[in-house]
User: Which sequence fits this backbone?
C-alpha cells in the first residue's frame, strides 16, 4: 500500500514537472523532441507506462473490533515477510561467499566473538530491544515522573496562558 | 524454489521479489496446514457449545455458523491473515511483472514454434458488471485492467504466476489440474468419444485450455475470456509452449460462434465468477453452440446441499473475503433446473462430480491425497 502511495506521488511529481517544460522556447522544444526521437534513452522513456494497479476494487472486510488492529495486523504481516526476505538474502550472500572461496560458511556457525565484540554486540542488541519495546514501556516514564502527565487540554491551557 | 514450470512467458522475478513470492507460498501452506484446521476445533469446542447453550439446538445452516464464527478471535485472526496473504501474493508478483513487462511483451510477439494458434480481440468490448463491481479474488484491476495499454498482457502475466502461489501448487506445475480433472471425467464417463472442436469458457490464461489441446492434439481447441490481457497472454503462452489453441476476448453469455458448432463446451471454476442472470445466459449459450449430441461440462465449487453447516460455511470463505461474491448464490442454486431451462432435456443433464485429477494420481501412486473432495460438474448432452 505504501508502494502504491509512492507511485502516486511519483505520478504527481511527473505531472507537476510537465508544465515547467512548456516554458522552454518552441524552437528548443522542437529540437529536444527531434533529439528524443533518435536517442536510446528516449526510446526507453517512451516504453515507460503507468504503474500497475496495487489495490483491489471492493470493500475490505473489517476483521477486528478496532480498525487500527486490522492495520496493525497488516504491518506485522509485512514485517514477517520482509524478515523472511532478509534471511533469504543473507543465505544467498553466505552461499556466494562459499562458492567464491572467501571463507567457509561453517566459520559463521563456529564463530565465537571475543570479549570486545561480545560487549559491542550486547550493547547494540539491548538498544534494539529497547527501541522495539518502547511502545510498551513509554507510559511507565510518565507514571514514575515527579509531575503527573497532563491531558492534551491541560497542555493547551498551559500554552495558552 | 517452487515447482512451477518456468516457461518462456512466465515472469522471472529478481532475488527479493522471488523471495517474497516464496514467502507467500509458504505462508499459505502454513495457514492451510496449521491454522485453518484450528477453526473446526474452535467451532466444535467453543462456538457450537456456546450456541447450543443459548439456543438449545445446533446451528442449522452455514449462515448461522458464520454469524457466530465471525465473532470468534481465532477465526478473525485466521481470516485476516488469509486475506493478507492474498493481498501480499498479488503485490509480490506485481513487482516482477511491472519491471519485466517490456521484455515479456517482446516475447509475446514471437512465435518460436510456428504454431497456428489465433487471437481475436473485438473493438469496443464491454466488460460485464460482475467483473467491474469488485476485483475478483483481489487481483488489482481484476481480469480486465489493461495498465500496459496496447497489446496488454499484464493481467495475464500477473495471474499465471499468482494462481500457482494461490493454489500452493495444488493445481500442478502448469496450473492445469482442473482441465485434467474434467478431461478425466470425460474419458471415464463417455469412453470412446473425442471432440473435433472444443470451447473452454472463461479460460483466463489458458491453463485448462492447453490441457485439452494436449489431450486431443487433432481437435480445434478454443478458449474465450472477458479479460483482454488474459487472452492476449494466453495466446502468447500457448505459442511459446508450442501448443496450438485459438483464443478470443468474448463474453460467454453471448459468443460469436455459430449454432451447432462444438462437440464439447467446458468451463473450469468460471460459473461462480458470474451472476444470477449471466449463469442462465451462459448455459443457454452453451446449448446453442453445441452440436446435437455435443457435451457440456461446467466444473465449479461445492454446493451447499449435502454439506454439514460448518464445512459449508468454510466453503463460503472466498466469497466473503476474496471477492468471489456470486459463489454464495451459486451454491444455493438448482444447477440442473438452469440446464433444463436452457434447453437440455431433463434426462440428458445432471450434476455429477469428480475428485481432482491430482488427488486421483496420488491415490494411484499409493500416496495420501491432500484433498479428497468431489467437485461438482454440470453435465449435459444436447
Assistant:
Amino acid at each position: 500500500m505504501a508502494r502504491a502511495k509512492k507511485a502516486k506521488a511519483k505520478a504527481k511529481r511527473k505531472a507537476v514537472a510537465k508544465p515547467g517544460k512548456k516554458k522552454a522556447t518552441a524552437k528548443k522544444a522542437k529540437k529536444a523532441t527531434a533529439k528524443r526521437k533518435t536517442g536510446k534513452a528516449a526510446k526507453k522513456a517512451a516504453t515507460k507506462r503507468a504503474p500497475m494497479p496495487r489495490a483491489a476494487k471492493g470493500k475490505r472486510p473489517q476483521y477486528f473490533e478496532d480498525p487500527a488492529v486490522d492495520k496493525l495486523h497488516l504491518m506485522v504481516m509485512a514485517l514477517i515477510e520482509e524478515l523472511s526476505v532478509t534471511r533469504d538474502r543473507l543465505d544467498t550472500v553466505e552461499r556466494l561467499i562459499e562458492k567464491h572461496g572467501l571463507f567457509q560458511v561453517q566459520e559463521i556457525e563456529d564463530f565465537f566473538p571475543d570479549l570486545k565484540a561480545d560487549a559491542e554486540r550486547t550493547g547494540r542488541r539491548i538498544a534494539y530491544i529497547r527501541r522495539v519495546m518502547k511502545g510498551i514501556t513509554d507510559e511507565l516514564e510518565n507514571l514514575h515522573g515527579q509531575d503527573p502527565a497532563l491531558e492534551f487540554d491541560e497542555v493547551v491551557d498551559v500554552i495558552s496562558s | 524454489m517452487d515447482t512451477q514450470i518456468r516457461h518462456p512467458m512466465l515472469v522471472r522475478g529478481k532475488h527479493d521479489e522471488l523471495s517474497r513470492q516464496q514467502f507467500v507460498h509458504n505462508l499459505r501452506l502454513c495457514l492451510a496446514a496449521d491454522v485453518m484446521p484450528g477453526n473446526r476445533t474452535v467451532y466444535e469446542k467453543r462456538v457450537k457449545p456456546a450456541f447450543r447453550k443459548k439456543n438449545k439446538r445446533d446451528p442449522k445452516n452455514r449462515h448461522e455458523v458464520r454469524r457466530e464464527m465471525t465473532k470468534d478471535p481465532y477465526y478473525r485472526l485466521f481470516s485476516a491473515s488469509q486475506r493478507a496473504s492474498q493481498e501480499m501474493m498479488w503485490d509480490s508478483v506485481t513487482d516482477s511483472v511491472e519491471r519485466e513487462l517490456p521484455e515479456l511483451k517482446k516475447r509475446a510477439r514471437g512465435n518460436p514454434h510456428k504454431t497456428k494458434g489465433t487471437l481475436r480481440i473485438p473493438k469496443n468490448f464491454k466488460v460485464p458488471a460482475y467483473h467491474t463491481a469488485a476485483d475478483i479474488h483481489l487481483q488489482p484491476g481484476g481480469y480486465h485492467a489493461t495498465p500496459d495499454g496496447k497489446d496488454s498482457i499484464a493481467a495475464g502475466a500477473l495471474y499465471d504466476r499468482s494462481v500457482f502461489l494461490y493454489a500452493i501448487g495444488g493445481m500442478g506445475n502448469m496450473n492445469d489440474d482442473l482441465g485434467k480433472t474434467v478431461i478425466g471425467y470425460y474419458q471415464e464417463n463417455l469412453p470412446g468419444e473425442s471432440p473435433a472442436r472444443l470451447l473452454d469458457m472463461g479460460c483466463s490464461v489458458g491453463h485448462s485450455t492447453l490441457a485439452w489441446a494436449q489431450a486431443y492434439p487433432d481437435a480445434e481447441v478454443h478458449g474465450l475470456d472477458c479479460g483482454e490481457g488474459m487472452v492476449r497472454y494466453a495466446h502468447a503462452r500457448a505459442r511459446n509452449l508450442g501448443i496450438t489453441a485459438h483464443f478470443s476476448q468474448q463474453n460467454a453469455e453471448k459468443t460469436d460462434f455459430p449454432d451447432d458448432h462444438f462437440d464439447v463446451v467446458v468451463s473450469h471454476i468460471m460459473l461462480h465468477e458470474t451472476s444470477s442472470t449471466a449463469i442462465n445466459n451462459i448455459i443457454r449459450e452453451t446449448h446453442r453452440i453445441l452440436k446435437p449430441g455435443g457435451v457440456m461440462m461446467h466444473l465449479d465449487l461445492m454446493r451447499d446441499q449435502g454439506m454439514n453447516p460448518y464445512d459449508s460455511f468454510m466453503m463460503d470463505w472466498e466469497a466473503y473475503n476474496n471477492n468471489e461474491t456470486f459463489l454464495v448464490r451459486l451454491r444455493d442454486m438448482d444447477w440442473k433446473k438452469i440446464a433444463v431451462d436452457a434447453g437440455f432435456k431433463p434426462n440428458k443433464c445432471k450434476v455429477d462430480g469428480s475428485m481432482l485429477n491430482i488427488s486421483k494420481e496420488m491415490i494411484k501412486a499409493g500416496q495420501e491425497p491432500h484433498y479428497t473432495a468431489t467437485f461438482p460438474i454440470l453435465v449435459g448432452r444436447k
